[in-house]
Every structure is written in C-alpha cells, then in structure tokens.
C-alpha cells in the first residue's frame, strides 16, 4: 500500500462524511424528514417559527379580547403549517405547535365562557381537524401503548356510582343553574373542587394501572395529563376555585385537576427547564397540558411521541428520550429545541446556548461521545426543511464535536494502516473503546444521578442469543447475547444472557435478587444495543482505507462492518460506508490527481 499524505486523505474523507449526514447513521433520518415513521423534524420547524416571530417583536400572548382573531393566531398558523411541511398531519401538527407555544409562554386558557380562548382548541381549528373524545387519545409508544380510554372509563364508572360529586343532581331545585351555579358557591366551592380532585386521581391511577397491565413500566407524566384531560372533558374548566386554593381571576379548576393528577402520579412538585433552570409549578403544567389534550383533536401515537419529546426539556426527565440515560434512536432526539427557545427568551446568546446544550447533554448520559452527534444529525437533516435560528444554532453547536470525532477516527485509521494493522483490527478496537466508554461514563452517570458507586463490565457481547435467522446472526440489536458484571459496594454479580434471560426473569418476579443489578446495567446495555445511531466507526475507517488504497470500496466497507460488533448493530453501515468512500475517492482524485481504487 503506497503511503499517502494524511492531510489530503483526511480532507477528502471529512468532506465526504459531512456531505450527507444520512451516511453517518443507520437510523432512517431521511424517512423522518418526510413524515414517515416519526415527525420529530416538525419540532425543529415549529421552534424556528416561534423564535423567528419573537425576533420580529411578535407576541405569543393569548388575550381575552372581543376580537375575531389575535396576533398569536397568525403565529400558531405559521407553526402548524411548518409542522405539516415537515411531515406532521393536522392533528399532530396542532399538538406539537400548541405544546411548544404553551411552554414558550402562551396561556393554555384565557377568559370565561363568552369569547374565552383555549390554546388546544385554537390549534385544532387552525389545523382544520375535528375534535375527538379523550378516550381516543393514545399514549406514546413505550414498546406497547394504551389510549386514554381507561381514564375515561374509570371516571364514568365512579360517576355512575355517585362517588365524585358531593351533590346529587336530582336534589338541585329547578332554575338553579347558569351563573348562580356555575360562577357561584355551588359549583365553585362544592361540586367542581370535588370532581377535579377525585376525577383526576381516578383517571391518573387508571392510566397507570392500564400501562402496568400491558407489561410496561408506564410514564407518570402521560398518566397525569391524560387523567387530567379525561376529567376536564366533564367539569367546567373556566370555573374559579375556593379562595384557599388560589387567587381569584388567576386560578381555575384546571389547576385543581393538575395538582391532584400530579400528586396521584408521584410527580415532583416543581419542574426545571434544562439550560435556564427556570422553575415551573408541576400542577399548572399538568392541568394546562391536560386541557390542551382535551381540545386538540386526534393525535396519533407518532404525534404523541413528538409531544413527549417537547416535555423532555425538563431536568426531571418526566418523559421523552431526548434527555434520557442513553442516546436514543434519532427519531427521539428533539428535546433541546424547546430549551433553546427558553434560553433565547431568557436573554442568552447563541454563543452561550450552544456550549450549554452540549455540556448538559454530554454530562447526563451513559456515553457522552454520540450525544452531540445525535443532536447534529437530526438538526442537520431538519435544516433542509426549515433552516431557522433554533436549527442553525444546534447544528453550529454540535458540528465541532462531530468534526473532532471524525478527525480522531480518521487519524487512528491512517496510523494503524500505515503500521501494517488490518482494517478489521482497527475498527474492532474502536468498538472496544466505545464499550469501555459506556462502562466508564455509565458508572459516572449513576454516581451523578443517585450517588451510587458502581462498576459495570461487559464480558460478552455477541449476536443471536435465542434466535436462528440470518439477520439476527449478523446484527446485534435484534437478539443480543450479553454477559455483564455489576458491582456495587459488597454486592457483585455476573449476569449471563442478560437481555434474553435475566431481564425476563426479574420482570416475572423469578429473580428479585438481581433487580438492583438489572437497573444499573439496563441503560448501559441500551446504549450498547442502540449504537447504530452513530456509525462513524464503520464509515470513517472504510473511507480512509479506500482512499489510501488498502482495499476496494466494497471490500473495505464489508470488512469494517463485520468488525464493528456494536456499531453495526442494525442494517445500513456497509451501504453508508460505500457511499461515503466513493465520494471520498472522487474528492481525493480531484485534490491530488492519482487514480483511486
């Protein structure tokens, strides 16, 4: 193999790699840009619209005004249209826009019956979609999913039994209604506070039980907001509350619903925005979001998954994968769009926000190195749909980290091949290092999260633990065969067949003695299995080897993919590597002139 100058080889490879972010991940982010699979790109587009309008001096305020349209309606319409252009259907676009505008400062409700305005209802009408009952609104996909029907069913069953209202309707005299009921003591002091508290509790608990009943751990925030939506479909959401419960004119029955639901779900009393630290009253958030969901129409499971990522902006990790313990598939990586909006509103500059986002994500995950890449990949693809201020900020903030990764892997490949090492050996070492990073930073993650001093070591990572198909034998993620060693203080265990045997045994109650270790190893193992979200360990070495003349493009891509035992965990790396290598060779030829294999 003829020795070639590193600078020209690497310049060609880096240019080829960054030419199309699709070739740097096995996740189907091109499909995401068209509304197939997920609609996470819509969050970027909506965030861009919101900030663009704020920069023009427009207001997000929802006013109780005797007018047909408010300025905020125009902003919302632009946001909904941008979400639709990014692949969201009408109901999903309405939900995404309303949720993000709510957190950006738009009130969920304003006013009393004549001419009152509700954010969810406005979004639904501007999106041109029909309303549906809360029972048809689903949770996100948590492997499985449920609709809000259990909450509606449980609340109506309690109503039928006379368990919610302290007043039996048949005892209300004729002509007691309207204002002397709805905006006076009977409704505001007796009936609605009771309905709000009991209904929210019952609905939330029913949602949690339904999630548990289909074998998922569930999500407290989704249970609370859907439980809230179910009772808000029934009670007067604009009613005032007893004075001891809140300030007159500022606190409606929605707050009482949110407070009861949040407590029933076990949510913390306060939430804090990532980056800015801004504090939110959980009761207000849960009630307001429940009201939005009550009015929004019929979002799909995919729309609710993007909804969850909007609320991944909170430090408390109440939902979504964007701020989770492991780097998720790229269809989830959107939560920082909301954080950027709030940081800009707080007066931070892009030069301050970008590093803060990278720091926040990189210190709150079991492997920091793919974290900036995940943000970059989705933001870069989203910029093709709407290249606005939020999207550009995230691209600019994450690109230096991605460039550094490309450089490090390019240099390691160049030096290794010139030392006579095989491409397979170089790639395998990169994946070994990726596993070691997960072990090291996974321990730091548990120390930061819970003060736990743990050690995790992967003793075996192979394919096909229990299945025999060719696909499973080739790719790790579909049936991983894992042995993991976990130590915490005096406790120590080696768990063979971790994913295919130990986890089911713990969940079935057969091995409660291993629950402590399973909890520790689970997010780290998810990081291992989901490593296909960033395939630099395949693409960069294969492209470098092709340009350097080590092997043909096809052979280099095949060798690199086979050696990348976790990075090539799902199909796609070989084809991506071939595309990047082909372009790298063409660029190198243009730079230097010689033929390239």
How many β strands by DSSP?
Answer: 7
Structural class: mainly alpha
With strands numbered from the N-terminus, the spatial order across the biggest sheet is: 5-6-7
Largest sheet: 3 strands, antiparallel
Shape: globular
Mean pLDDT: 93
Number of alpha- plus pi-helical segments: 24
Contiguous low-pLDDT stretches (5 residues minimum) are: none
What does this entry look like structurally?
The chain has helices spanning 6-19, 29-32, 41-55, 71-85, 90-104, 119-127, 149-160, 179-182, 185-213, 220-232, 253-265, 282-295, 301-310, 336-345, 350-362, 370-382, 389-418, 423-450, 470-474, 498-507, 515-529, 536-548, 553-563, 573-592, and strands spanning 109-110, 117-118, 270-272, 279-281, 454-462, 481-488, 491-495. It contains 24 helices and seven strands. By secondary structure, the protein is mainly α.
